[in-house]
Design brief:
This protein is α+β, with helices and mostly antiparallel strands and 736 residues long. It has 19 helices and 29 strands.
Amino acid sequence: MNLIIVESPTKAKTISKFLDNTYKVESSFGHIRDLPKSELGVDLENNFEPKYVIPSKSKTRVSELKKLAQKADSVILAADEDREGEAIAWHLFTALNLEENKTKRIVFHEITKEAILEALTRPRQIDQEMVDAQQARRILDRLVGYKLSPFLWKKVAKGLSAGRVQSVAVRLIVEREKEIKEFIPQEYWDIEAKLSKDDNHFYSKLIKINNKSLGKFHFKNKEETEKTVKSLRSGEWIVEKIEGKETKKSPLPPFITSTLQQTANRRFGFSAKQTMTVAQKLYEMGHITYMRTDSLNLSVKFKEEAVKYIEETCGKNYLKTGGRSFKVKDKNAQEAHEAIRPSKVYNSPEKIEAKLDKNQFKLYQLIWQRALASQMSEAVLDTVTIDIMAGEKQECLMRANGQTVKFKGYLEIYPEKVSENELPLMKKEEKLKLEDLINRQHFTQPPARYSDASLVKEMEKHGIGRPSTYAPTIATIIDRNYVNRDDKKRLFPTEIAFVVNDLLSQHFKDIVDYKFTAEMENNLDEISHGKKKWRPVIKNFWEPFNKNLEEKYKELDKQRFSPEEESDEICDKCGAKMIIKTGRYGKFLACSAFPECKNIKSLKKEGEEIKKEDSQEMLELKEKYKDEKCEKCGSEMIVRNGKFGPFLGCSNYPKCKNLKNIEKNGEKEIEIKCPKCEEGKIVKKFSRRGVFYACSAYPKCKNAYFAKPTGEKCPKCGSLMIQDKNGPKCSNKDCE
C-alpha cells in the first residue's frame, strides 16, 4: 500500500477517485505542527531555533497517520506546491518520523487524473530552501507579534496586536482616511451641447477656446461660464473635422491571485477572504488550477485545448494567430507555476453548474471566461471623432465621440462593458442644430476608501505580502478591530487604528515602512531560491528591532498615547466622576473609582446613535471575556454580535470555527452530558436557520437537537426529552 497525504479531506476525496486500491489517500487537516500558542517558541539564544509543537487538536490525527505510515510501502507527501505546502510536507516528514528512502514529495498545478498520475512519475525531495523561507516568515511574524503586541498593551490598551504585514496594511488605510478628512473640494464647471442632425441627437463637449485647450479648472464658477454660453447660443454650429479609425481592444491576461481577488470584489462584492475560500473549494474539487500564484503562464496543453474549443464554438476568426503569452513584471514571480485557469476547457460553466453552489459557479465562470478569452482575437471597434466649431466668432471647438463594436473577438466569451455611442452621418462644413446647452457644476472628490480590490492592488504595488497573504491580512485587521467596513463594504480605520499607527510610525518606523516591508519580502524570496540563509536574515532584523523596543519601553509612557480625559459624566452606580479612556475598541467612559467601581459605558458622540457593537453591554462583555482562550486551538476568543445576540468566536477563524454561547442574564448554560458519546456536553449553537443544541465534541460527535433538551429522559425509549413549543416531547422521532 502507498500512502498519500494531502492537507484537506476534499482534496483527498478528489484524488482518491483517480487512483486504484494500491493507494490510500489521507488528509492531515492542515498544519500538524506549529509554534506554541502560549509562548514565543523561538530560542533567541540558540540562533533563533524554532520550538515546534503538535497542537492538541492534531495529536490524534498524527497518531493515526503514524500507524498508517508504518504499514505503508511508501509515503507520498502531496501538499500544495507553495512554501506553505512545502512546510506542511516537511512537518509531516518530521512529526511522523518518516524514513527518507521510502518518502516521496509530489506537486501538481491541478487536481485531475492526468496531473496526479504525471506527478507520481516524477517525485522529488522536499525543497528545504522553500521550507526555510516559510520558517523565516513564520518566525519573523512571531517575533513582531509576540514582542510588539505586549508593548502596545502596556503603552496603549490591552488586547491590541501588531504584525509585520498587518500593521503596514493598517497604515495604508489610516493614511487614506487622513487624506479624505483633509481633502478640500475645488469647484469647476464644464459646458456640453445637445446637438441634432435629422432628428438624431448627440452630445459634444467644449474642449478649446481660440485654439487653446481648456484645463479642468478653466471655469471656476457659473459666472465665468455665462459669457461662453452666451457666445455659443448666438453663433452657428459647423462641422470642422471628421476622423474615423479602427481600434483594437486586447483581452486581459488570465488571473493571478491578486487580479482574481480584485475582479471578484468589483463584480460580485466578494471580500478577498471569500474569493480565496471559494477558489480553494474549486481547486480541491478539481475544477481549477492552484489559486495562490503570481504567474501568468498557461500550459501548452491548455492552450491547445482552448484553441480547439474556440474554433469549434466561435470560429477560426476568433482565434489569436500564433497564440498569446503574458509576462509578469515582478522579478520574483514563480514563472514555473501557472495562472489560475479551468482544469478542463470543455468543462464549461453551464456543464458543471449543477455541481456548484451559487458563489462557486460565479467564480468558476469568471475564471473559465478569462482564461479562454486570453487566447482569443482582439475586439475591433469603430471610433469616430467629430470636431465642431461654434460661438459668435467661431472661437469654440466642441468635440463629439462615437464608438461601435465592429467585431466582438474575445468579448464573445468574456463580456466587458464597452461604451457604444453611434453618431449620425455628417459631412465637413455641415451645419448642425443646437437643441440645448448645459453648463454643469462639479466639485473635485476625495480619494475613495479602499475596497478589498483596491487595497490588494496597493499592497501588490508596494510589494507588501504575497499571493497567499493578501486575504488573511485583510481578515486579520478586521478581526483585530483596526478596520471596519462601511455601507459600501469599503474599509475604514477605527479610532484605535489611528492611535496605534501614529505610535508605530513615530517609534517603529521599519515595521510600517513600505520599502522595508517589501525588502523583507524580497529576502524571503531569495531564501526560497537559495540565495540567502534564513538565520542571518532573522538576525539582521531582530537585533536593531529588539534594541529599539527596549529603549521605547523606558522612553514612552502610557499617557502619551492613551491619555485619560475628564468628562462631565457621573457614574450611575457609585456617583463618582467618569473619565474617558482609550481601549482596544476605541474611547469609552470608565468610573474614576476603579477598581472599587468597574462601571464602563460607550462614548456616544453628539448626534450619533450607539451601534450594538459599541453598546455598554458589548463593552462589558469584551472586558469580561478579554482573557478567554479557545479550548480547541488556544487562540484568543473574541466577543462578536450576531443575529441571536453576543457570542464568543475564535480569532483564528476560518482555520478554527469554535463558537461559544454567552449566558444572558438569568440564563444558565446547559449542563447536560451528551447521551451519544458521553464525553461532550450539550451546548447552545447558532446557524443561519436559527438556534440549535449540539454536542461540544463536534466533529467527533455530531449529536444535535433542534429544541432545548430538558435533561429528562423519555420513559419509553430513554432518549433525551426536548422542550417543544407545545411542551416536553421525546427527541426520538421514531418514539410514539
